[in-house]
Amino acid sequence: MEAPLSGLSLLLLLLAVGWESRMDAAWAPSPGGCELMQSIMDCTGRRLSSIPANLRGDTEELFLDDNTIQVLGNASLLLYPQLWHLSLTRNRLELIEPGAFLSSQGLEVLSLTDNLLFTNYSLTAAALSALPALRVLDLAGNQLREDMVSVLVSNLSSLESLSVARNIIMRLDSSTFTNLTELLELNLEKNYIFEIDNAFEGLQRLQRLNIAYNYLPCLIGFDLTQLRVLNVSNNVIEWFLTLEIDDLFELEVLDLSHNRLLFFPVLPQRSKLRSLLLQDNRMSFYQRLPNGTSLANVTVQFLIIDGNSTNITTVRLWDELCHSNLSSLRLLDMSQNEVWGLPDDFLAQMPSLTHLKLNQNCLEAFHLSEEDPLPMLTELDLSQNQLVELGVKVGTGDILPSLQLFNLSTNRLQALPPGIFAHTRKITTLDLSRNRVDLCPQPGEAESLACVDIRGVETLIHLSLAGCGLQSMGGRPFQGTSLIHLDLSDNRQALSGDLGWLQDLVLTLQVLSLRNTSLSSTAVDFSALSSLVHLDLSGNSLSAFPTSLGTLRLRSLDLRDNCLRALPLDVAQVPLGRSLREIYLSRNPYNCCTLGWWDALQQAEGLRVPDGREVTCSHGSHALSPGALPEPVLRSCRWQTADLALLYLVLALPTCLTLLVAFVVVFLMLKEKLLKMLKTRCGVSGPY
């Protein structure tokens, strides 16, 4: 029969339980110099050459990254039977002895990244084969060849995720990944793979495959119907051809970016493809060439040799889409290619498209019509082309009714079709920067002038007109808009005329960029822009701080690259100074002797000067840091800024004294004559 607990014993027991609870709730140092949190032991970067033997026996996760362990011995993990996650990343591991995991049958996640397992891979393979529950294995960065990988994973049928990235694998065949029947994810990026021969046939459950950054020249006969994500970016692929079968492909994401594709990929006839990334290739369409030549009857024949069988596939050059189903596509990125034009009905095959990127191509014209309405499209990027024409066939139907972001920057446009924004009822962002466009100034002039009419587009809140060569903007080009962000930078004549156009923006405008617009100190009165939060005045000719800024409550102000000699002394006390959170001031010729404003800014609470280290002031021919002026400069400045009244007094005092002395001397010399003259004039008789 057990004895009852005494009061002292009960108190000690409660203290022990409380201490254990606190250990479980927060990190604490362990006897081995590691950190403990609940059942997780972190021994990262402890210069350990072996696994510590004095850790908690109930450890479930053990991190030994960035140590110097070379061998994982048979007895290394005997004390930790509950271990399910082990990480040995960035050690010097050369060998895992065959019995190392016999006491860790529940191990599910094992990271062996960046070690030297190529040296004794066969013994290490024997050790791995004793892990029946292993689900995740990372062997990246171990200088493994394909034959070594095959041996290491040959008996790991429970694996669901395998990474052999950053090794020296060159060729894959059907023997490389045998028995990996449960594998869901495979990472092969950054190897030297140039050939794949039926390597994935046995991986019936594989859903995510990454073969990026290799040397694959083509992918022909793609038939992995169960795959959901395929990344083959950054290879040298010129052709991508899907096997012509009626099976439904589960593929949702296909990344072919940064390759050498010559044609649009031949995709599955039935698929769930949502994202197609074709950025940075050599792709074009050949229905119409830039010189007007038609290739209507030209075809390409693909000769496919598979063992002893030969297959010839014929494709019409402009019908690359004939076998592709793009009805579920949401994102299409074809930027940085050589596209001159799109085939007829190309966009009509993509009714679900929401994002279309065609920037950095060779497009000279882009036409929209009711046949290609793109009802779901929210983002259209046509920037950095050679567009001179944007055609819109307007009828009774809608065109781009869901469009929100329209990027037309860096083209050769001079106008947009009249009424184009009447159909884009949700547009919020329009980028027309670096085109030679003008804004329509008055109602009714949009039809008679080559201009862009944005008046009345109530949803538009972001507008960029940088570098458009805008002249003085007359009239009210922003009437009926609710612009929040307006970029007029790099328009040197935009502020030269009447600035009445600002009146339609006073209530909504929060971000205004007037960088490099030849702005002088008195050109613009900002006081009416009461909602302004961010203002960029850099790259102008400001020689004095605009006084109209003092009443604003800006949070960010950029005054770089101007001609400012000083800022107002009360800049930190006015409403502007109290609201500012960051101000950019570098590359101005400040006077080192009038830096009271700088000291005030340094003391202002919550205000940052991100380019403070670049701010300099001028003293003579020297450029100095305002926070570390030499003593001779300070003395010179004190003399230059002394009280002028005192200076004038010091200069006038000797002159006054000289005049006083001269007057006294003259008076003494002429005293008797002056007295006689006074007596004579006043008729006073002298004594007998």
Automatic annotation (TrEMBL):
Range of residues in the leader sequence: 1-25
Keywords: Leucine-rich repeat, Membrane, Repeat, Signal, Transmembrane, Transmembrane helix
Parts of the chain that traverse the membrane: 645-670
InterPro entries on file: Dev_Immune_Receptor, Leu-rich_rpt, Leu-rich_rpt_typical-subtyp, LRR_dom_sf
Keyword flag RNA-binding: no
Classification via SMART domains: LRR_TYP
Record protein name field: Negative regulator of reactive oxygen species
Species of provenance: Lonchura striata
Species lineage: Eukaryota, Metazoa, Chordata, Craniata, Vertebrata
